[in-house]
């Protein structure tokens, strides 16, 4: 009979580990779901299934005549008692695995091995003391086997198990059926405590394990009970930091050309340092403010500290030192409150294959805003579906969505529930250019009233979306400024682009280019030819050029386009992609 539970245990472990494997467990916690709620939902779901199967099995055993004399309700409670222990054992074993299939296989083998001590107890029970038998019953499979033995023994005497003799031992000083039932319940509590303890020591892919003595620290229980001191901070909105290299370009630590209009601070990192166990410093003494109603881009090479900062803002890793304030709350001491107002879009889409687009939004709406009525939740989901342009696909399961649609859904989830702070890790990674532009439009729609922080390797994306750009290098802040400030400081000026006539693309002589250059330099002597390949001539106009000469230059070009064998021209500002490569080294081909 014990073997019939093996499939259930393997299935429960696999499901729990699978959620960890696809990172949905961590994702829901980042979005504000308390771990206790997640565990309780998993426990109740499995107990409902086991209760039905226990009732059916008890009825079959009674009606088939196997346990003909026993009280069917006692048999049901006995099976349910063991079912609870099976659930708790599954919870405990799942802590040690990160791969669902491996977990299912190993727990199946382990479960089969776990009833071997019962064979020892069955053969040597006359030679074992009560204490030894009790210790063997710390394995719930052993206790369950002993309970089944008592029932079959009483069935052989045509009595069966009854309420009147649950505590009657077959042998003087031996174990009783009632004692075995209590041992199974004790095992359940023991497995739960072990699972809770080791889940804190071995947190999985993300997070940091607590010290082995954490149950004996006051700080842990204060944080669990929400008794940690709430720290609210008043933040300056004029924060503007650069390193010494950027300062040499004309900026100071307090002011730059054009004082930053920061607005209301939403997120602040104050002297934050993150050092891993191998003494590798990922972030070093970082002080940075992100403002509400603004989008801030984090730029930097691989290893610059972007992912570490994002992970700390998500609450996955605590800083080694320093303070992180989000919406006036200290992240380290008020994490649950922070997560209630935090939206997250990981770099990899974390979605459940069998849930539809609408079901995903309904799920996270319930997590982020449990106070909404059903009607309000439906309205918000409909609004989000419209904003992320997924209304026509709302009933499709996530597994059939394209990459662009999955990113839209992930972004919609991040903004669900009126999140005040939203962190997006490379939101446009892995999507085609058309979908990227669509994602940009979505982010710009959601900017008002929120603090939005995102990482990217695309400078055009940072320039298009961000109000400020923070460039990181080796865990330090290299510069923090609006894109216009970076272009003004590092850019070479304006770009004048002239289009050649198609008929002379292959035959244009250098003297024709010289004529164009001469005409331009009459009005702007500092201008110089940057590129003449293909069908265009590109000139750079330095930023210190006299802007009053532009009108005369444009009039001269209009009058001489035909003679210069040109069809048109245009003037554009410097883009971030044209900023010198030493500022953004990852852009160098």
TrEMBL record:
Q: Does the keyword Cell membrane apply?
A: no
Q: Which UniProt keywords apply?
A: ATP-binding, Membrane, Nucleotide-binding, Repeat, Transmembrane, Transmembrane helix, Transport
| Record InterPro entries | AAA+_ATPase (IPR003593), ABC2_TM (IPR013525), ABC_transporter-like_ATP-bd (IPR003439), ABC_transporter-like_CS (IPR017871), ABCA (IPR026082), P-loop_NTPase (IPR027417)
**Xref: CDD domains:** ABC_subfamily_A
Alphabetical GO CC annotations of the entry are: membrane
Segments forming domain ABC transporter = 267-499
* Origin superkingdom: Eukaryota
Transmembrane segments annotated in the record for this chain: 39-61, 73-96, 102-123, 135-154, 174-198
Q: Mind telling me what this protein is named?
A: ATP-binding cassette sub-family A member 13
Q: What organism is the protein native to? A: Cricetulus griseus
